[in-house]
Design a protein that fits this description.
five-stranded parallel beta sheet, alpha/beta, single chain, six-stranded parallel beta sheet, 11 strands, 12 helices
């Protein structure tokens, strides 16, 4: 492919929030490799804000499963030169077949993941980030040293003071086995309050009850949970010294906002590639267990009913790690 040709590229990553944000280093790399290209991004509507104002994109196409025929017609009329499929699942592959366009696909380490989860055989020779895995979709694509990219439009206000000692909590995650216990967040938050920090709780619409309980249990804390208002969340995160998060989309939002992150990993492990990218970070995990990972995405309950992967990571230990981490910032 000639980088001087004016080509049209379609990038597909339908979901979810973290996965879409993790494509942004690849978008920069594609624009560097094909500087005269017109690049369009296909994503589910609920995650479109993650790339809506990305400077490397010409257009953001919002996927609606109820109107795929209309979308197919529109994309066909665009006459793309090729597709970069960073989703690589049944839906995206079917979509590309219907378009009949040349495609390059994300090479998922599915077998390695399955072996690690089911047999604990680890064939991951090194830990690679998801952007690094994405970049292998096209030979010779080179990532830069920058991190994730989330463009926040002007005029977003948070009403958080610039000079406050804020520490953000992101206690939610789609799956139970990725969530540090809420009572641990509350205990830790009150200890942080005693030493001069103000806790800000972040979450989306599914985290309303969780953030409400945690915030109400921490003296002086601020509940910034909202109805999935990504730009407001990211702008408020930028006021924090650091973010404490589970392995979740908001962990990647914090990284995209340029905020240092401490992440607590329960059922997930670093080998899967979903660590905070391009930002100062620390992963806290219980490496003494031979049952981790129990899933590559998370589970609704601990299969062994002890949940030691999270329960053995005490609030006192996390507090000590936060103190040490902040001292390095």
């Amino acid at each position: 492919m000639d980088s001087e040709n004016k080509i049209k590229i379609l990038v597909i990553r339908l979901s979810s929030l973290g996965d879409v944000l993790l494509t942004t280093p690849v978008l920069r790399a594609l624009k560097t490799k094909f500087p005269h290209s017109s690049m369009h991004f296909l994503v589910k509507s609920q995650f479109a804000d993650a790339v809506r104002y990305n400077p490397n994109l010409t257009d953001v196409l919002e996927f609606d499963s109820n109107h795929t025929d209309i979308l197919l017609k529109k994309i066909s009329e665009e006459k793309f030169d090729f597709v970069v499929d960073l989703q690589n699942n049944f839906r995206s592959r079917k979509f590309i077949r219907q378009l009949g366009i040349k495609s390059y696909s994300f090479k998922k380490p599915s077998l390695k993941k399955w072996l690690l989860v089911k047999t604990k055989i680890n064939l991951f020779k090194k830990i690679e980030s998801i952007p690094e895995m994405y970049s292998k979709s096209i030979d010779g694509l080179k990532l830069d040293s920058k991190g994730l990219e989330l463009i926040i439009p002007a005029g977003i206000e948070t009403k958080l003071n610039e000079d406050k000692n804020y520490i953000g909590f992101c206690p939610g995650s789609q799956h139970f086995t990725k969530r540090w216990p809420k009572e641990f967040f509350i205990e830790l938050g009150n200890e942080l309050q005693k030493i001069g920090f103000t806790v800000v709780c972040f979450g989306g619409k599914d985290d309303k009850d969780l953030c409400g309980e945690i915030s109400s249990g921490i003296e002086g804390s601020i509940n910034f949970q909202n109805g999935n208002e990504l730009f407001n969340t990211a702008e408020a995160m930028k006021k924090c010294k650091m973010i404490l998060s589970n392995d979740s989309g908001l962990m990647h939002t914090a990284a995209a906002a340029g905020v240092p992150v401490i992440a607590i990993f329960g059922s997930s492990v670093k080998e899967f590639g979903f660590t905070p990218y391009g930002i100062k970070n620390k992963i806290l995990e219980n490496n003494s267990l031979n049952c981790r990972p129990c899933s590559h995405i998370g589970k609704a309950e601990c299969p062994l009913e002890h949940f030691k992967c999270m329960k053995d990571i005490s609030p006192g230990f996390v507090l000590d790690q936060i103190k040490k981490f902040i001292a390095t910032l």
